[in-house]
Amino acid sequence: MWIRSILMIVGMGAVFAQAQQLPKDGNAVPFDTPNILMIAVDDLKPMLGCYGEEEMLTPHLDQLAKRGTVFLNNACQQSVCAPSRVSLMTGTYPDTTKVYDLKTQMREANPQTLTLPEYLITQGYETTGTGKIYDPRSVDKQYDAASWSQPFRQYEVGLFFAEEHRKPKGGYHDPEVEKQSRAMKAYLKKNHIEPSQRKAYQDLLQRFPMAKPLTECLDLPDDAYDDGAFAKSAIQQMETLANGDKPFFLAVGFKKPHLPFVAPKKYWDLYDRSTIQRAEFQQMPQDAPSFAFQDSWELRGSYSNVKLGAIPVEQQREMIHGYRACVSYIDAQVGLVLGKLKELGLEENTIIVFWGDHGFHLGDHGMFCKHSNYEQAVRSPLIFSAPGQKAKGVTTESPSEFVDIFPTLCELASIPIPARVEGSSLVPILDNPNAIVRESAMEQYPRNDMMGYTLRDKRYRYVKWVENQYKQGRLHGATVATELYDYQTDPLETVNQAANPEYKAVIEKFEAQFRERGVAQENG
After folding, report:
1. In this structure, are residues 282 and 275 in contact, taking their beta carbons and an 8 Å threshold?
2. CA distance 362 to 377
């Protein structure tokens, strides 16, 4: 059994004792080589107790935070699933991966792709996982076969659902949902309606209000839904890997709180909807370009009980309630996985990294989506916890990015960092939360033939929109618009200060950083 282990739950991890150099033959490895367990969560903004959200009930993640470092100023690389996850798993930016959407295959876009688990195989690791780590639309049918020395569990996870309940249909258990969903599909086919026909498709969704509802609250066990089954699958995998003859990398990905907001009733019961406050500022920032806004089409064009126009107050509360319930549901599943780690005697020798792939707007700026360069979409949870960590139970405002996870784990495992990795190791911050690895964190988001690049330091966010025909490989072009937000005086991003001469020096500082990074430039 491998006694030393690294548990990578996106966002947590740090082993500071330096181990021996690992061989590259994938065979013999030092006895004290750590395992890695990564836990990823879909559409999770930092709405956790350990991030200061006092109304949230997330005891297991809060306990994990007490053993590690919480990164308060962490950025995803692009606020949508596939690009964010590909960047995180390769340690490279979207302009390198060429994955900017939900349909690009990462290895077709960049044949030189090297993923974290793929690299760990060459360093003697057993690698496998369950749930959602990559977005399945960006990888092959084996969930990127090159990443896994043992098959990644996808379809066979059905074996882990509660015996007394059927596998959910489309994520739901309500039989009326399945009935209306079939009827809607038949109507679509008969009338030749495509989702791209926005008005007709939205009208159709209203015709079948239970075909794909926003929420579901039923009195069911945790493993009646996908994430409960993923937790059980991960526990079985951990038991097997712990008795193997290699260190392991185990990746566990949970689907909630991604839409629809579906969780067992007991998690809904943790929160009183009547006390839930809506987002305070539901307009676009003053003087912001209109294209910085996203119309929440993922919500309006996919779910059958959402009308066009302003979302009613009570429905906003329902969605926030559902999001909170889903977060607490996932916290419980993380608790099961961490509990098994402790039971197996691996807790004290495990590095844990926990992350959510991007944030999510819950009504702020009038949006219910990710898909933007604003704080609530870009800021993402990241927690590291590791044996030998000098600072535990601490938070850091030092900027970090998801591309930093790959090199951080390499340094913690005392293996070389591949030259192609573009992130920076966060180990100095794990030693000292006041340390600085980078001045600011960068994210980007495309809009048609524009790219919005954003930098966020401890106080400001600067966004620069440039002409950028990324689909044709042309990454540089004329500046279209800029945005600047001062979170010290304007935490809700109500006013774009880019044209305010008082902030000229701040903008010049960010422009210098863009030049240094080689992005958001007129010519390249």
Report:
1. no
2. 10
Number of H helices, E strands in the chain: 15, 15
Amino acid at 332: A
pLDDT digits (tens, 9 = 90+) for 53-99: 999 999 999 999 999 999 999 999 999 999 999 999 999 999 999 99
Residues present in the chain in total: 524
Any idea what the Cα angle at residue 313 is, between residues 307 and 317, rounded to 5°?
A: 100
Task: Give the number of other CB atoms < 10 A from CB of residue 110.
Answer: 17
Residue type, 363: G
Which strands form 382-385's sheet, in the order they lie side by side? 126-131, 248-254, 36-41, 351-356, 382-385, 68-71, 394-396
Identify the pLDDT of residue 524.
Answer: 52
Give, rounded to a whole angstrom, the gap between the first and last alpha carbons of the chain.
Answer: 52
Closest CA to 59 of 51, 69, 49: 49
* Mean pLDDT to the nearest integer, 112-131: 97
Considering the entire predicted model, what is its pTM?
0.93
Show the tokens assigned to 324: 């909170």
C-alpha neighbours within 13 Å on the C-beta side of residue 172: 20
What is the distance between the alpha carbons of residues 37 and 239, in angstroms, rounded to a whole number? 13
Alpha-carbon span 492 to 365, nearest angstrom: 9
A 10 A CB-CB count for 278 gives 15
- Taking the CA atoms of the chain, what radius of gyration do you get in angstroms? 22
Residues 301 and 200 sit within 8 Å (Cβ to Cβ): no
Residue 71, C-beta contacts closer than 8 angstroms, at least 6 positions apart: 11, 381, 382, 383, 384, 395, 396, 398, 400, 426, 429
Domain 448-517 is of which CATH architecture? Answer: 2-Layer Sandwich (3.30)
Q: Report residue 352: phi and psi, to 5°.
A: -115, 135
User: Could you tell me the two tokens for 299?
Assistant: 């919500």
Distance CA 511, CA 524 (A): 15
Residue 415: DSSP 8-state:
-
36-170+213-438 shares its CATH topology with 448-517:
no
State the Cα–Cα distance between residues 115 and 322, nearest whole angstrom.
34
pLDDT in tens, 204-246: 888 898 999 999 999 999 999 999 999 999 999 999 999 999 9
d(CA 460, CA 297): 28
Phi, psi angle pair for 288, to nearest 5°: -85, 145
- CA-wise closest residue to 524 among 480, 473, 490: 473
Ordered by start, the domain boundaries in the chain are 36-170+213-438, 175-207, 448-517
Answer positive or negative: Cα dihedral of 114, 120, 124, 125: negative
d(CA 383, CA 8): 9
Report how far residue 79's alpha carbon sits from residue 6's, in angstroms, rounded to the nearest whole number: 27
Give kind and range of the element (H or E) at residue 174. none
Tell me phi and psi for residue 471, to 5 degrees: -65, -25
As a CATH number, domain 36-170+213-438 is 3.40.720.10
